[in-house]
Amino acid sequence: MPTNQGKRGTFARITRALTSLVTLCSGMTPLSEAMTQTDKSGVSRTRWVEFAIEGAIRLLGFSTIGFVLLIFLFLLREGLPIFYEVPLGNLFGTRWYPTFDLFGTLPLILGSILVTVTAIVIALPLGVATAVFVSEIAPHWAREVLKPMIEVLAGIPSVVLGFFGMHFVAPVIRSILGAPTGLTVFAGALILAYMALPTIISVAEDALDTVPKSYRDAGLAMGATQWQTIWKVVVPAARSGILMAVMLGMGRAIGETMAVMMVTGNAARVPLSLDSLFRPARTMTATIAAEMGEVAQGSTHYHALFGIGIILFLLTFLINLTAASAIFHKRRRGGLR
Amino acid sequence: MVDAKIRIQQLSYAYAGEEALRNVTLDVQANAITALFGPAGGGKTTLLRLINRLNDLVEETSMRGSILLDGEDIYAPGTDVPELRRRVGMVFALPLPLPGTIRENVVCGPQLAGVRDWARLEEILERSLAQAALWNEVKDRLDSPAIALSGGQQQRLCIARSLALEPEVLLLDEPTSGLDPISTGKVEESLFELKQQYTIVIVPHSVQQAARVADYAAFFLMGELIEVQEGNQIFTTPRDQRTEDYVTGRFG
Q1: Alpha-carbon distance B236 to nearest alpha carbon in chain A (angstroms)
Q2: CB-based burial of residue B137 (10 Å sphere; 0-12 exposed, 13-18 middle, 19+ buried)?
């Protein structure tokens, strides 16, 4: 799987960097030179360096896991109280008015889901098609230009995209639809799709790249055209990676806060009517970001915001779990490599 | 040698300035097995890939000379390349089942070529698997994943996949290099059956295999065609000193 290889690559790079760092700091000879020394002190010194590097890496690895666990525990500690402070009927009701002790999270959950799903529906075909173009069709020089450009796209701060959405996308939507406001779910989804695209493209492109050349040969040798080979052979062979790309893009979309807060209108209403797509909505992330600053620490409202955090966490976890099990299931069927 | 199926005429080919084939002229007879053998880097695989234009997508290559299939230049402008590849099938060194079931692997080619009739596809499925000597082993599990088959079965599946298109020529690039002797024997046996109907060009994975299967054998060295002879003569009475050195095991 491409992401694994990516990780391994990064890991190797970090290891190398660490090695050079350790040797640099202690003023010792580099490892390779130390290895060639035959005297006793050289050998023990090599062992010591080996031990130190291994220890450092282990410490870093475990501390990463530790931090994640700590964050999760903190989230639980601050958020769990809401589930017994407020009856569940209220908590999953349709009205979110914290000042009146109404903590209905349903509109927020549905708002997040609607914005994210719409964004993915827009970004998936665009992203996969671009990845296919970059990896399979574009000539060599175009690929060299396009890949870094796509990576630059990922670096645009979300607040800038939010501005763009507020002052350009929203007015266009308003004037085209004649709606009272352009700050709608659709505007948010467009901006989110744009933000998820670089992730989807580069991960999917990596996945397509790792499909062995022999697959393309086999497809072409069957008398398939270049397009048939791409859609019937190369893309199916890379589908686990493409699925991963979509899931990562979706993870980015559902967790995105700033741009969404700026362009979706932030009205906490249940987006279940047909025209919801072109009406304002409010997401979980935007609610937390907007209200956390002015809430009294330890209050019910405060706990409710962390409760939303827990729900968001579970939702993302569920998405990742679905993706992982889908990939696993398909691999067991033997469809994937 | 009037009615050669494939005529290769003064063919030279280079990858980014590196010569792979030098002035090769070779006639390939219909309904016979022609073996291209010699040490690695001799240009055998390149020649196979040129016969069905698989090298079209490789960048920075140059080619001189021509390849005629039934008297027509396959590199002439306006050639329908997918159609050419359906007429000239290819089997690769590594068995490579496509994602999907055994059935999907075999009928995929005809489907892409536009065959929609299910009865016809079933017929193609059975015929090609039978021709590749695989039908009896897989007929009860056509819908199981292709990569669950053994290596030898996978390679015969790949042969069946090529045969499903009813090609005229079958190119085999070391088709048994990853197989055990028993599977190798089965593949070779099916080749003897197949040559009744098809023109076969094979790059064998050893001199012994070349001697076993070849009706015509051509010896390639460093991109040059050293000599061609009928049947086993090249192995018993080679004309060229270099051929003799190779087949007697003095190098290679």
Answers
A1: 35
A2: middle
Question: Is A178's Cβ below 8 Å from some Cβ in B?
Answer: no
CB-count burial class (<10 Å; 0-12, 13-18, 19+) for B87: middle
Please state, in angstroms and rounded to a whole number, the distance separating the CA atoms of residues A235 and A333. 17
Considering only the beta carbons, identify the residue of A214, A228, A335 that sits closest to B100.
Answer: A335
How many CB pairs below 8 Å do chains A and B form together? 70
The answer to whether B166 touches B85, Cβ cutoff 8 Å, is no
In three state form, how does the secondary structure of A197-256 look? HHHHHHHHHHHHHCCCHHHHHHHHHCCCCHHHHHHHHHHHHCHHHHHHHHHHHHHHHHHC
Distance from CA of A333 to the nearest CA of B (A): 7
Is B145's Cβ below 8 Å from some Cβ in A?
Answer: yes
Q: Does domain B6-247 have CATH number 3.40.50.300?
A: yes
A217 touches chain B (CB under 8 A): yes
Q: Is B185 helix (H, G, I), strand (E, B) or coil?
A: helix
Q: Which residue ranges make up each domain of chain B?
A: 6-247
Put simply, the answer to whether B113 touches A223 (Cβ < 8 Å) is: yes
Tokens matching residue A30: 């580099």
> Can you tell me which residue has the tokens 């993302």?
A316
ipTM above 0.90, yes or no: no
Is B112 at the interface with chain A, CB within 8 A?
yes
What integer is the mean pLDDT of B148-152? Answer: 85
Cα A260 to Cα A60, A165, B133, distances in angstroms: 34, 9, 61
**Dihedral angle, C-alpha A72, A75, A80, A83, nearest 10 °:** -110
Report the gap between the CA of A127 and the closest CA in chain B (Å).
23
Span B197-228, pLDDT tens digits: 899 999 998 888 888 899 999 999 988 899 99
Other Cβ atoms less than 10 A from the Cβ of B185: the count is 14
Residue A8 has what pLDDT?
Answer: 47
- Residues A173-196, mean pLDDT to the nearest whole number: 87
Question: What would the pLDDT profile of A20-73 be if each residue is shown by its tens digit?
Answer: 544 444 444 444 444 444 455 566 778 889 999 999 999 999 999 999 999 999
Element (H, E) at B199: strand B199-203
Residue contact A218–B109, C-beta within 8 A: no
HSE (side-chain half, CA atoms, 13 Å) at A36: 4
**CB-based contact B101:B144 (threshold 8 Å):** yes
